Amino acid sequence: MAHEHDEKHAHHHDRDHDHGHTDIDWAVMGPLLETQAELFAPLYERAMTWLAKERTDPGLIVDVGSGPGVVACLFAETFPAARVVAVDFSAPLLERARSRAERLGLADRFGTLTGELPDVLGELEYPADLLWAGRSLHHLGDQRAGLAAFARRLAPGGTLAVMEGGLPSRFLPRDFGIGRPGLEARIDAIEADWFARMRADLPGAVTETEDWSALLTSAGLKYTGSRSFLLDLPAPAPDRARAYAASWLTRVRDVYGDALDAEDRATLDRLVDPLDPAGVHRRADVFVLAAHTVHTAVRPV
């Protein structure tokens, strides 16, 4: 269950389950999301290198649930002949995506589309040769129907790449000297329970076994494989990795505090305190280790 450490999902935890997006100021959140996605860029780049072996010359790439466009711009750089469309519900995040594309000299091949998934995909002018869904599918109540909608927007021979699952991220040793050992494992259990409730509360929620090859096949696609990609930033972590760890642990404390015992809450308070020598801003043993899994399928010609 590695649902938490993606570009946007960690900031959905305190959101209403009805998918009302108005309770978060995405213009304010945008810089943090962009910084976090940049931290994970090596992982995404390795995934794109793998995808490029299957899909060498896509004309149109669609990033579904793109956020501020870091991954969409990486696609534009990886596939220099392709046009890329970033799709998201948040206009402020897509404005950041357009600005990023312009800074990188990609604006002539970069577009955006604002709206709710999956219906907004009907506004695409052309079918996609490569459609990337990076941890956006699990925000749809009916994932099977969502995959079918994604598949319909593929050109014949087009590839659907779904990033879902992997392993929980780690920032600290099992025993890091304060509180009870195993804090991150206890957080994993709380997160897994939260994720199950979040899924159950989504509009039109349907319980699905997460057999991605079977789900992709049910969408009328030919499953072609799955592969996991690693982000490994060893200790001592750079400042931006420490900032990411502090941001995540602060969110855990604020959102899951009632599910943690008093000792774990006190440990989190120390870990996110920038003045505490035992906090992640200062300690020498902080690292970032994450694994994300990508599943691919092709629309038959």
Descriptors:
301 residues, 9 helices, alpha/beta, single chain, disordered N terminus, 38% helix
Q: Explain this structure to me?
A:
The protein is of the alpha/beta class and 301 residues long. 38% of the residues lie in helices and 21% in strands. The chain has nine helices and seven strands. The chain has a seven-stranded mixed beta sheet, sandwiched between helices. Helix 4 (91-103) links the parallel strand 2 and strand 3 (110-114). The longest helix has 19 residues, at 183-201.
**Radius of gyration of CA atoms, rounded to a whole number:** 19 Å
Tally of contiguous helical segments: 9
Which of globular, elongated, flat, extended, rod-shaped describes the shape?
globular
SSE topology string: HHEHEHEEHEHHEHHE
Classify the secondary structure makeup into a structural class. Answer: alpha/beta
**Which stretches are low in confidence, meaning pLDDT under 50 for 5 or more residues running?**
1-22
How far is it from the N-terminal to the C-terminal residue, by CA? Answer: 34 Å
> What share of the residues lie within helices?
25-40%
Mean of residue pLDDT values: 91
Instruction: Note the main sheet.
Output: 7 strands, mixed
Strand content: 15-25%
Strands of the widest sheet, in order across it, are 3-2-1-4-5-7-6
**Total beta strands:** 7
